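Quick start: read one record
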Amino acid sequence: MSAKLPRKKELIYRLSEKQIKRISIYFCILLIISLTLSIFTLLNPVKAEDNIMLFTIITSVSVAIMLSCIKYLRKIYKACIDKRTEVLDQTTWYESWGNILYFILRPFYSAVFVVLMIFAMLAGFVFVTFSIDEVLNIRFLYFCTTISGIIGYSTGRLLDAFEIFSDKKVDKFFKNRSD
């Protein structure tokens, strides 16, 4: 992909003081839950061996959500510090709805990307080894968990990359059909 992804450092978030506090609390709660789940699953490798796929999904999704929360908590506090927020009163809540969804949905986007990544990697490894039994082991769990952290932290960039990639493919498809 040759097109450079745009950086959005100068975004102004239109949120009320209450909304900023609620979103911050939401991220902190998700962070604690995902950290707890991650630690629990990674500290129980014996149980993980019994159902490696379930533990891989739980741990990977937890790590992705955890790092997504860290990233977007950081975005909120940096926006507040840099005065890139427009504090709104409650009568204009509809103006901030997109900003609220932007923050609330990011951890869930990262979870979806991670589940897709796990199945794509599983399919690739099975294609290479011709055996699912050789792939599904504790190393697969650790590998997926590591990649999940990167995906969780990079959710926004992944969304931008998918948008650019799909726009190019759709444009190319319709251009070829019209020729």
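Residues 1 and 165 are 8 Å apart (CA to CA).
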